[in-house]
Structure formats: structure tokens, C-alpha cells
Amino acid sequence: SAEPGGPYRVVLLGASGVGKTAFANIFAGAADSDDCELCGEEVCEKEIEVDGEPATLTLLDTWDAETDNKCAQEPCMQTGDAYLLLYSVTDRASFLRASELRISLRCVHPAQHTPIILVGNKCDLVRRREVSVSEGRACAAVFDCKFIETSAAMQHNVWEAFHGMVRQLRLRRESK
Ligand code: GDP
Q1: Would you say the CB of residue 42 lies under 6 angstroms from ligand 1?
Q2: Which domain of life does the protein's organism represent (predicted)?
């Protein structure tokens, strides 16, 4: 559905406390209104350059991890062109939650063309780590999606995740 160059709708998914808001804040930058005209509380649209070409991303941080209301959650599962599936490497429950969300996404998007990146955030918290890099990588392999570890606190690999997303969206477009 997305046009070449976007805007692509990228949805942040994951358990409460894994760093979705931190990701959205980095994406929105200094929240300078000139810099990001279309930014609200939960939605931010921005043009970024990836591999020398512009791409417009609409980032949605609308996922309500607390609610058990499936009707409230479903729109998030359906409206994305791509998904960043976050967990915290310091929280095994959030890793298991990411697996459940991956399964739900597969039901909603049965064709394998929707890019998903499994993101292990908080990799700066070395001594509180509960999920190893190899577990994250193995999970991504099983779920047939990309994998990256990030630290929103250190601004490490966050833009790499967004850029990886754009590359996958472009590949998908070319292969159509
Ligand atoms: P959300 O519920 O998924 O939106 O999670 P938040 O973005 O609100 O993050 C929850 C808490 O974790 C906040 O106190 C953040 O400052 C903290 N946090 C988020 N990302 C990181 C990270 O990469 N490293 C560390 N050390 N803390 C983080």
C-alpha cells in the first residue's frame, strides 16, 4: 500500500517499560516543532535519509501494553507497514511477550512481506541482563525477522534500527 519513499507507517510494539517511548523520543529528535511538524504525543512523521535517498516514516507509539482489550490493540496490529518489536534484555517476561506479539502479527499479516525487526533494548545494562544476544538472535531466526540490540539510553543502534527498517521496506517494494 505504501508509495515509493513512503510515508511508511512503522509501529512500535512491546511490553510496558521496554523503551518504546525512548525510541519515539529519539526519532522525534529534540521535539523542535520546526523539525517535526507532524509530531503529536504518539505519532511522529519525519523524512530521514537512508543510503542517500529520502524516506518518510510515520512512527506510531500507540501500543497500550497494559490493556487486555483486544479491540483496542488490533488497529495497531493492522495499520503498520512495518513493526519494531521491542523487548528489554533485562526483562525475560518482555522477551516472551515479544514472541507472543510476533505470533499475533503473523496471524494479522500472513503474507511474509511485512518487515519486522526484533529489538533487544537496554543492552547498556550489562549486569542486569536476563536475555543473551544469542537467545535474541535465535528467536529472530525462528520468527524469520531481523534482529538488533540497542540502547536508547546511550543512543546506540537506534537509528540503525530505523535505517534497517527502511532498507527492508525498499527491498519489499523492489521484489513486488
Ligand atoms: P515504554 O513503556 O516501552 O514506552 O518504555 P519507556 O521508553 O517509557 O522506558 C521505560 C524506562 O526504561 C524509562 O525509565 C527509560 O528511561 C528506561 N530506558 C529506556 N530505554 C533504555 C535503555 O536503553 N537503557 C536504559 N538503561 N534505560 C532505558
Answers
A1: no
A2: Eukaryota
